[in-house]
Design goal:
The complex is a heterodimer of chains A (about 120) and B (about 110). Chain A has strands at about 5, 10-15, 20-25, 30-40, 40-50, 55, 65-70, 75-80, 90-95, 105, 110-115. Chain A is an all-beta fold and about 120 residues long. In chain A, the strands form 2 sheets. In chain A, strands 2, 4, 5, 6, 9, 10 and 11 form a 7-stranded mixed beta sheet that branches. Chain B is mainly β and about 110 residues long. Chain B is built from no helices and 11 strands. In chain B, the strands form 2 sheets. In chain B, strands 2, 4, 5, 9, 10 and 11 form a 6-stranded mixed beta sheet that branches. Classes of the chains: A mainly beta (about 120), B mainly beta (about 110). The interface of A and B includes residues 103, 104, 106 and 108 of A.
């Protein structure tokens, strides 16, 4: 079975550019999570969708970040404009059963570098 | 204070050693607990759930102490392949929070 799919795997961009990260959750899962991981701050939850609806975006750092989930099989995380401090690994995870679900399955991540 | 805290390590141990990690959580309403393993430049993967009575999976033993609000992971007879970062995760019922991870290096 295919796991969570993320693209691109690596992204290098210049400050000020728009960055779009993509995620395809595991088929049948109804919850999707976007995380950011850095050495300094560890794994941080950015936003959580349940049944394609954003439930909690309190982790989104600022207005430069936005996320969408137009259907059950696709989500995007957009950063516009990007800044060097956005450099991190961005993980998408999915689960069945909402935020209280016991197991979240992570995608391979997108390693973002903003110069 | 972070809601879930771990000793970042690194823990450097020889092959065959026994090593233990602790993870403390601040929300007493937390309901379920997990250990994830993350290899270098890879995603976190569920290692094991932590049950109230403690549970074992081969060389790995997980325990929960609700009174003191911590969970632990014990690795016996450590292997080179155990080298990774171990993240604890705590589910409050409405949210899953991860610790920053403890890095383990097992050396020959």
């Amino acid at each position: 079975d295919a796991g969570v799919i993320q693209s691109p795997r690596h992204e290098v961009t210049e400050m000020g550019q728009e960055v779009t990260l993509r995620c395809k959750p595991i088929s049948g899962h109804n919850s999707l999570f976007w995380y950011r991981q850095t050495m300094m701050r560890g794994l941080e939850l950015l936003i959580y969708f349940n049944n394609n609806v954003p439930i909690d975006d309190s982790g989104m750092p600022e207005d430069r970040f936005s996320a969408k989930m137009p259907n059950a099989s696709f989500s995007t995380l957009k950063i516009q404009p990007s800044e060097p401090r956005d450099s991190a690994v961005y993980f998408c995870a999915s689960s069945f059963g909402g935020r209280a679900a016991d197991t979240q399955y992570f995608g391979p991540g997108t390693r973002l570098t903003v110069l | 204070r972070k809601e879930v805290e771990q000793d970042p390590g690194p823990f450097n141990v020889p092959e065959g050693a026994t090593v233990a990690f602790n993870c403390t959580y601040s929300n007493s309403a937390s309901q379920s607990f997990f250990w994830y393993r993350q290899d270098c430049r890879k995603e976190p993967k569920l290692l094991m759930s932590v049950y109230s009575s403690g549970n074992e999976d081969g060389r790995f033993t997980a325990q929960l102490n609700r009174a003191s609000q911590y969970i632990s992971l014990l690795i016996r007879d450590s292997k080179l392949s155990d080298s990774a970062t171990y993240l604890c995760a705590v589910n409050r019922g409405d949210d899953m929070r991860f610790g920053a991870g403890t890095r383990l290096t097992v050396k020959p």
